[in-house]
Amino acid sequence: MKRISIIILLLVSAVSCSKIFVYDDIDTVVYFLNSGTVSLKPTTTSYDVVVYRGGLSGTPTASISVDKSVMDSYNADKATSFNLMPESCYSLSASAVTVDAASGAAHCMVSLTLDGLSSGFWMLPLKLSSSEATVNENKNVLMLILEVK
To answer: Which of 2, 8, 93, 133 could bridge across to 109 with cysteines, CB 3.0–4.6 Å?
Structure first.
């Protein structure tokens, strides 16, 4: 019986000395769900841009902007020659979105029109930024690509 008491005492001591982790210091991270390149069909009239939140909690606001430098870098790296989609051919439902606490997501609709686009390869390069959360630098760019024939 004395031996069992000593073993139980040692186990309780070992457990009570273990570290307790506090997860309050985990950063809230935002990112595009479908980052990278997305090829659109010529019949596409809208695209749902989804911004996700990682981390434990929060409702951060993130900005979505058209960034020509993203396209320029892509063209240089891939030896391509995409054209920047004219402003008259697209509209964003919002330039900033707030991530929903329950779903961890926010949506921005991109409306597209082919009116006025000549034949060729077109790109709408979107970049994500936020002053309220860390932006995942590997998933902060979304390039919507469209070929007009």
So the answer is: 93
In this structure, are residues 49 and 105 in contact, taking their beta carbons and an 8 Å threshold?
no
> Which H or E run contains 31?
strand 29-32
**Boundaries of every domain in the chain:** 26-148
In sequence order, which residues have a C-beta less than 8 Å from that of residue 81 and are 6 or more positions away?
Answer: 75, 121
- Closest C-alpha to 59, from 11, 8, 7, 102: 102
Paired tokens of 119: 């034949």
The domain over range 26-148 is classified in CATH as 2.60.40.1740: yes
pTM of the model: 0.82
DSSP state letters, 65-109: EE-HHHHHHHHHHHT--PEEPPGGGEEES-SEEE--TTTSEEEEE
Q: Give the gyration radius of the chain's Cα atoms.
A: 24
Place of tokens 């073993």: 7
pLDDT by residue for the chain (149 residues), tens digit each?
566 656 665 555 555 555 555 555 678 999 999 999 999 998 889 999 999 999 877 899 999 999 999 999 999 999 999 999 999 999 999 999 999 989 999 999 999 998 888 999 999 999 999 999 999 999 999 999 999 98
